[in-house]
Specification:
Elements (H helix, E strand, L loop, with lengths): L10 H11 L7 H21 L3 H8 L1 H4 L5 E2 L6 E2 L1 H12 L15 H16 L3 H21 L2 H6 L4 H18 L3 H12 L15 H21 L15 H4 L34 H14 L6 E8 L15 H6 L1 H11 L9 H4 L2 H7 L2 E5 L1 H9 L6 E7 L4 E6 L12 H16 L1 H11 L18
Parallel strand pairs: 3-4
Antiparallel strand pairs: 1-2, 3-5, 5-6
Helix pairs in contact: 1-10, 2-5, 2-7, 2-19, 3-5, 5-6, 5-11, 6-7, 6-9, 6-11, 7-9, 9-10, 9-11, 10-11, 13-15, 15-17, 19-20
């Protein structure tokens, strides 16, 4: 029985204790396998994303290139400091919104965590097994912070959860790779609280800052861990304190979600490896329309109208029907459905300026009718892993097709096969590093537990 003077552990202490005590052997085999798939997917999207305009601009910034370092910038031959590598690789991973998504926290965890782990591992020479542990623990911290912030309310405040929650997970993940003590991990969470940032204002004009925030989350996590390793302290009350994250960043926080089922439910199993390069809320409808096209064989010229039932309560703006930027298109349900009807895909190449302004695609966009369904929103509130959608297609010859699905492709209740995940990786990596090197890299990552030093992967990451 606790004495009255015995202090109840603070949330940062509980999370650090969990992370510091997690061992490779403690992680169930299916979780370890999922971690390797997520790791591979993130490297693939970063290799592809390194070619994006915003990743190139970030690499050209003088403060990023200043100084020396031995950490790899994925998709290039550039070597920079660990914090700058985490920044640049995070931007590349989130460049086309093709990195994973954890729908209960509305975050993109791996796009933050894998760049942080790689940067720290190249500095420390950590093993593949330690990377699997770090990724698993980082997921559990990052996503639990997001869920505790009650993400819909957090976003209503204007915050981007990947940016605000990312530093906490990255501090734990990179801290484990660097060998921090439990006390230092507590400090790193406290320091990360001073780095937690990211606003949703990029929605207004399609600015590049959405891509930046995954990079900042990775960079700030590595910074927090390295500062704490050197003895820099952060407040253990960073979450529940009077001026802590839960009070400052949301209304209606759910602090119990920070530690609920910690060590028994591994949140990396609840992340979704994206098959489409757009907002996750569109994926269920995209899966439906593409399946309809495969089954019934109709083309875009045959379509009279498409009605899409969805769970978003806010009214869609004019940009949803006339997207001007890549980000506009990735956020647009009507555009994403229309371009998928033409290309039978919704990858990065479907969100180029040429596609966005194609008159045939835009004509079909005007015939896509989004309809808010209260029952879908209610379903989501009962099960936040769900993203319900329905699609009704009316063809010009009078035929009608209707389908409803409640979970997105590769969501926890609708998992894709490993081969599909590898196929996505190869499609992204082959053009960048050659098919042979991409195949060798996939083999290495999918047997990551056998990699003695993660620096062995560095040569594969160079274009």
């Amino acid at each position: 029985m606790k004495s009255e003077n015995q202090k109840h552990p603070q949330f940062a202490e509980v999370l650090a204790n969990y992370a510091a005590g997690l061992r490779y052997e403690d992680i169930p085999e299916q979780v370890r396998e999922r971690a390797k798939e997520v790791f591979l997917d993130t490297i693939g999207v970063a290799l592809n994303g390194a070619s994006s305009e915003w990743a190139g601009i970030a690499r050209s910034a003088r403060t990023v290139r200043a100084g020396s370092g031995e950490s790899s910038v994925i998709g290039t031959r550039l070597k920079v400091s660990p914090t700058n590598a985490a920044l640049l690789n995070g931007v590349a991973a989130h460049a086309f919104d093709f990195d994973d998504v954890h729908n209960e926290s509305i975050t993109h965890p791996a796009g933050v965590l894998v760049p942080a782990i790689l940067a720290a591992a190249e500095d420390s020479g950590a093993s593949g097994k330690s990377a699997i542990v770090a990724l698993t623990a980082g997921f559990d911290v990052l996503t639990r912070v997001g869920m505790a912030l009650e993400p819909l309310n957090h976003r209503k405040r204007g915050f981007h959860p990947t940016g605000t929650c990312g530093p906490f997970g990255a501090a734990i993940a990179s801290g484990l790779v660097l060998g921090l003590s439990e006390k230092q991990l507590v400090w790193s969470l406290g320091v990360a609280g001073s780095c937690a940032s990211g606003l949703m204002e990029y929605w207004q004009d399609g600015a590049m800052t959405k891509r930046l925030q995954a990079g900042l989350g990775a960079c700030h996590g590595v910074l927090a861990a390295s500062l704490s390793e050197a003895g820099f302290t952060g407040p253990a009350s960073v979450f529940e304190g009077q001026s802590g994250v839960l009070g400052a960043y949301t209304d209606g926080a759910k602090p119990e979600r920070l530690t609920a089922n910690l060590g028994t439910i591994f949140e990396i199993e609840n992340t979704q490896i994206k098959l489409f390069a757009c907002r996750s809320g569109l994926h269920t409808a995209l899966a439906i329309i593409l399946q309809m096209i495969r089954e019934h064989g109709f083309g875009p010229q045959e379509i009279e109208e498409i009605t899409v039932g969805h769970m978003r309560q806010e009214r869609m703006s004019e940009k949803a029907f006339r997207p001007n930027t890549t980000l506009d298109g990735q956020l647009s349900l009507p555009y994403s459905i229309a371009v998928a009807c033409f290309d039978k895909a919704a990858g990065p190449s479907q969100y180029t300026p040429e596609k966005l302004h194609n008159p045939e695609i835009l004509d079909l966009v005007q015939r896509v009718k989004p309809v808010f369904k209260q029952e879908f929103f209610d379903f989501y509130k009962r099960d936040e892993k769900a993203l319900p959608s329905s699609v009704e297609v009316v063809l010009k010859d009078g035929r009608r097709f209707y389908e409803r699905q409640d979970f997105p492709p590769d969501g926890p209740n609708n998992r894709r096969t490993r081969q599909e995940i590898v196929d996505k990786f190869r499609g992204l990596a082959d053009p960048v590093i050659s098919p042979q090197r991409a195949a060798e890299l996939a083999t290495a990552v999918l047997s990551l537990e056998n990699v003695a030093d993660l620096r062995e992967l560095s040569a594969y990451l160079q274009a």
